[in-house]
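S., here's the first fold you wanted:
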Amino acid sequence: MTVFTASLAAVCGLLTGAYLQAAWLALLAAAASAVCPLLPRPHRKRILCHALICILAGLYFQGYDYLHRSTLLPMAEDGETIVVAGVIDSPVKRDGDTARLFLSVETWGKNGRQMDGMAAAERIALRVRLSREPEAREAERWMQGSRLSATVRLSLPSPARNPHAFDYARYLRWQGVRVTAEAEYGDIRVEPAESGVMMLFRRWQTEAADRIALLFPDQEAAGYMQSLLLGITDGVSPETEEMYDNLGLSHVLAISGLHVTLVSGMFVWSVERAGMPRRPALALTMVLLAGYVLIVGAGASAVRAGIMGAIGLLCQAGARQAEGRDVWGWALLLMLGYNPYYLWHLGFQLSFGVTLGLIVLVPVGRRFFTRGPEWLRTSLAVTFAAQAVSFPFLIYHFHQFSPLSWLVNLLAVPLLSMVVLPAGYLALLLGLIHPALAVLPVRLASALLRWLHGPLFWLEELAVPFSHWPHPQWWWIAVYALFLAALPVLWRRGYHRPRDRWLYAALFLFLLAAARQPFADGDEVRITFLDVGQGDSIVVEVGKKKVYLIDAGGTPRYPARESWRERRDPFEVGKDVVLPFLRARGIERIDHVVMTHGDHDHIGGMAALVPRFAFGSVLVNGTPPREEEAAILERFRARRVPVLTGRPGQTWTDVPGVEWTWLHPDGDSAHTGNDASVVLRLTAYGTTVLFTGDIERAGEEQLLSRSLPSPVDVLKVAHHGSSTSSSPALLAAAKPQAAVISAGRNNRYGHPSPVVVKRLMDTGADVYRTDLQGAVTLVIRKGSVHWQTQITDI
């Protein structure tokens, strides 16, 4: 048994402990005891040891999880307001008129006069509302480690409300947080943190960030270098972050093994040139590494790199050969022993996954690529290993991976890591002596960033196919992982003849093709009523043939009264809800966009989608467009997308058994606004669905007099369930068996109207509501209809 295999067994045990009850662990222990005597004697002890590590790790997770249970959870379920006091347990992030932080609560009470101590400190996510600019400036000075007391209103974090969307509740769960809280600035008292080691490193990090801002006159370059050198990402523009994400370069901005290798190598070289013996130099470098990891924020990738670097230095000091996989295993065991929740952190997964890939796959890759100089073959091997291992993580969490990522990483990463990064550290060190000494490295780094980012932004704008990937299935992840694990084993056993290499390449390409899920959902129509808050957005997928987007929601826009209130990257429903869903479905082309009418809550999100997809056509109601609608249509026309309208009775067929009918309006209609909404009827394999936009009573009367000859199976309820729509006459004619209402939680309009909900239920319809159930999905197949809701417990 090696440290590497023991660490893998521990990971299996943690996963088992997280998802199975203790009784299952006992059953696994009994099964291992029963099976071991039947195994060959040479393998018996090793298998038993690994099974024991697995079971102990599972029990350790369950014990750790029990000790971190929430005391405040029952009060959060009732939305109670209490007084809490504790220690700020994270850097404070101020964005506009909101400050966010983690608070380690030590005492609480119904009022400030009598406080009860916690059995163990509980971490909560606190959101502080700021009303004046001086409050914002003061919040920016709050430091991790400061004591804070406040009157807060507790709540539960929101789960994902759309398929494969970011799950805030799950994210907080693995941060050790079960409860969220909100407070006003006036209800908070903060005491400066006591001086200590952690505060000293936080202060050094802040001072280094300020020095970078002083040395780099360009604000964008300064923010980038703060992220590259110190792991502070607040200064990177949202556009640059998105570009790096889309091109697969986001790992560049994370503190990693490259940073640790560069810093430790420079330090060892310097102190040895100053006359220090080798062993003391290595020992001093290990101390430096610990301080460096703390200065850059002690993120998962930085801690992992620091531990592995320290173990490597320790082995050098003892003149021992360090096996890369065992060093990796020690780092994994130490971090998971400290906090097993790390296993569910994306940064932890990527850092350890890519590092292991580099350790085991780069030697294979250097021999796989047989032609070219050594440096080129090494670069190709490193790029392949990093991209191949990160691929499943990226498509699982973000559903995007650009084919350009392979080439961009091969060309851009060496330039950023071997020139820009050292130039940045050199500028920072020389700037400590005098800012004038840092002029040359600052100019070099700034010029290279400008030269590099221009082409990268141009590449991002290209409509590159196979950039959006559907959410991977569990069996695909297992097979892909098995392939990557088996490749170095087979290579070491001699299976590296030319035909073997062709077979490996073919299998890899087959797995990439399988990740696209080309044969899934072939004979079905999938209709997803997205939860976009107070608005409408519906995605209709006709097998793998056609995609319709009926509206795209819209976030209400309230211009900030003061500049300090402006958010760095404000929430926008098209960018933050509709786009991620389309990516999660692997959609890159939208065949038909239907803009039912020009209200912002239906078309506002469309602007974020226009540059990111290919389009077949845009269907509109034919009335003169208002300002926002006209601007969006102009953007479609600039991309040569035809803008069309229809007439009542017009039909078209996507595939046999799937037919659309335009019901309303007609070109001569005098209706405007909501009553001019596009109304479509979809007949799919015998099931009829009526999409009504925001049509109101007058429009319904015209629809009834002309275009609604028969009942429907599913009704998309008009105007979010407003009392001005869904008249008794319409419901009597439609006789829906099911109805879907798209409305925002706790919206100020009171939608849906209780009268309309009762009216629908009186017709015998099953009512689905996005405000209560999140996204609602209807899957229609030949002979079956299946409903899915994102949130089942209402």
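And the second, which I think is the more interesting of the pair:
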Amino acid sequence: MISITLDGAWTVKNERTGTTYPAVVPGFVQKDLTEQGVLPNLYDTLLEEKIEWVEHDDWTYSRTFRLGPDSLGAKRIELVFEGIDTYAEIELNGKTIARTDNMWVPVRCDITELAQADNELFIRIASPTRTLQEKERQFGDPLKLWNGIPARLFGRKAQYGYGWDWGPRLVTVGIHQSVRVEAHGGIRAEKPVYQLPFVSDAQALVSASVRIANTTGSERTATINWRLLDGDAIVAEHAVSAELAPGENRCAAPLAIANPKRWYPIGYGEQPLYRLEVDVSAEEVHSKSACTVGVREVRIAQPYDEQGRKFVFEINGVPILCKGVNWIPLTLYPNLDSPQTYVEEIEAIAAANMNMIRIWGGGTYENHAFYEACDRLGVLVWQDFMFACGDYPDDDDFCALVRREADHVIAEFGDHPSIVLWCGNNENQHFIVNSKKNRREGYGERLFFEVLADAAAVDTLRPYWPTSPYDLSVDSSANNESCGDMHYWHVWGRTHPYEDYASVNGRFLSEFGMQSYPSMQVLDAVDPEADLRDPKFVSMQKAPNGLQRLLYYTAGDYRLPASKREFVYVNQLMQANALRLAVEHWISRMPDTSGALIWQWSDLWPSISWSIVDYNKVYKPSYYAMKRSFQTPNVLAKIAPGSGQAELFLIHERGDFQGSIVVELYDIETETAVHTEQIEAVGTGCRSTRVGQIAIGGHDPSRVVLFVHLYDGEQLLARNSYLLGKPHALRLKTPAFDIQRKETADGEEWTVTSRVFAKDVWIADVSGALSDNGFDLKAGESRTIKLPRDAARDGVQPALLSLNGVASIGYV
């Protein structure tokens, strides 16, 4: 087969003004116009009114391309579009050859009769907003939603483009995936798929199949060779002859792996990957394709208990404590991320002791490079279908459109072992139940409980979950602690104090979060002189009453700082305090609670949001707090407000553990331990175990801090510190640090030594993940931190902060 890429330089024309611009494919109109200075850059946070006109206009992409004699002499020539966003008419050499209506479904066009040596290609993309508003008018019934405009519900394009509570309205228009010409002999094998009908330690059966398109116009005899490889070694192969009728054919093969290597999540085992190859030969015509095979079994165990029913992911029979994040697209331009970017992001997630990513349903199906990185690193993926926060139409045409999308997504991405769940949507059950007050079936009920469920039923490699949150009832939208998964938003959403997290006993917390400001590096890139009430900063906050809530939660933990920089610092510490309390409560309950997925991983523009990594890739204190809380094995302390006891929990979710816990109550005024105690730490099974308690009553929370240490023999495995009260009560001494900086082969090291107890030592404004940050130091203690190579960005130099050095206003 000859494959000719058409990626690269194109031209795009505004059909209203007649103006033409250079364009890049894959890409988007708004991205090209921003880079050419026609639109403001994304640090202009008042940009929405300046860019909205783009989504209301029609745009035409065009280019020419040449085909040589070898291509023109092929039996079949096809033009392939991996993704167009969204409503396009494709014209080649003056003839319309296809129309598109779904940004996630590729288009393959037969151009054998139209192709010539010199070709002219036009892609006319209609205004998505005008198109969707017309669909909304034709549907007639009003649909309800959170975020964006109701018309978005009628389109199969990334929903977040119409604006969300963490990002602006930027409704993309473009060709966001690769374009190519394929010339071949009329026989084409699609990507193979497989099932695992039987897996044991001795053998794994792989049931493989492939669709083969015969476009020669006549029946062809073909030999189909299957190979399953472990690296370069062939572990199974199978050959069969078949008669390929004109049109689509499906051919299957049984393969067996002796003594299979099983794929496990990070920390639970290795991540071996096999490669399944199929080679179709029909006379002189050959077509090859391949996919990844990961041998693992997945199920969600939901046994009954006194509380209701558990919700536990089991991989190869092992219960998994799922610790991780919710994922929104990395930028406002979906699917343009490089493989290296995906690797860096997922490596940082794994480095924070996280093992699951939930891809949220208002974004996009990510590129293969994302899932490949998760496969290699052992990071589990909860994959939503792309529906979020609203009523969705359920007429026959829309259901058929969604079924084609689901069939494609499951076939295209289902080989990745990291994907362990298909989920129908994000938070639509609320809308289904509300709409059932006025109709027999709620809007979307048919989509999520029939259409997508039927599509996912063919995939036996992972379960399907119809909606999130979900409590096993079609007629309930309750966030139910007794069963299913739960989104908990009374903290933040209803302004409950974050201490309420400790009273929530859900079975799997798939969404919860606390906001904070981004780093000063981001704020200064927007405007270094503006105060936090400046419209440029206010526009970065898309959540209703968000600024008031940030002040409420921050003032609850801290005295109000006298400077903008220090307010941002303590506001970010507050986010870390809230998330830490939540996750440590929930992971201490394993297996009664078996998952905690933070909303959200990162920002896609200069947001004030729930992210733990900001737009400039500065990792917030929450990232490092989660890294410490999620490590394993671990020892955690739970201190209820007003309680005279601290409960101690051993986290050993990967199996049995025996060691010791050393507890120390440390007086920050005298810089001495006032009480030390050693407790035996024994836990059996994959769970957490309550191992005891320590008396804290009578100790002054303004001067005594609790340290807990977990040892395996003499080896220190984990060290965590806890306050007995709120941080605003601490009587901290003036900071006194000694800092040694050293250049290394892969970056820079800082060794920080404190001469007094130092609270929340923070190296600020560094892009990229540090080895550690945001930690407490006792007097005389040192910590060495590895900084990434590019620690200084755009002239920003790292600065050392601590709560000790924060000057507050005098009357609060």
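Why I say that: Residues 158 and 364 are 6 Å apart (CA to CA). The first strand starts at residue 2 and ends at 5.

Talk tomorrow,
H.
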